[in-house]
Design brief:
The protein is an alpha+beta fold. The protein has a single domain, classed as K homology (KH) domain (GMP Synthetase, Chain A, domain 3), CATH 3.30.300. It is 50% helix and 18% strand. The chain is built from four helices and three strands, in the order αββααβα. The chain has a three-stranded mixed beta sheet, sandwiched between helices. β1 and β2 form a beta hairpin. α1 crosses α3. The protein is globular, with a radius of gyration of 17 Å.
């Protein structure tokens, strides 16, 4: 397991915050769901690439549609990110669907069913 430096951790948090704001306020693509959540950002130490893990509500078709919208808007998001975050290199953005929120909700429901079987 690689150890992230404090610098990369701070950069990841700043990029996560700014990408969330850009998608929420500046992105006009109708394919990108307004209820999108940027879950995690992982930037390489040389700042060349950045994996952006996102989650949305909906079925798999909605996830794929949002992914396509984000891929097509990656240039715009990267340009806006370059203006807002002062980095030597603005990383290339790679968007990845994250199912962890859905998994957590599913596990929570299963735990509730086990703890309270008489209510079902």
């Amino acid at each position: 397991m690689k150890k992230n430096s404090n610098r990369i951790i701070r950069i990841n948090e700043e990029i996560k915050h700014e990408i969330s704001a850009i998608i929420r306020n500046g992105l006009k693509d109708p394919r990108v769901d307004t209820l999108i959540s940027i879950v995690h950002v992982d930037t390489t130490p040389d700042l060349k690439f950045c994996k952006v893990h996102f989650s949305t509500l909906g079925d798999e078709e909605k996830h794929q549609e949002t992914l396509e919208g984000l891929k097509n808007s990656a240039g715009f998001i990267r340009r806006e990110l370059a203006q807002k975050v002062n980095l030597r290199n603005t990383p290339e953005l790679i968007f990845v669907i994250d199912h962890s929120i859905e998994y957590g909700v599913k596990m929570s429901k299963l735990i509730d069913e086990v703890n309270h079987p008489d209510e079902n």
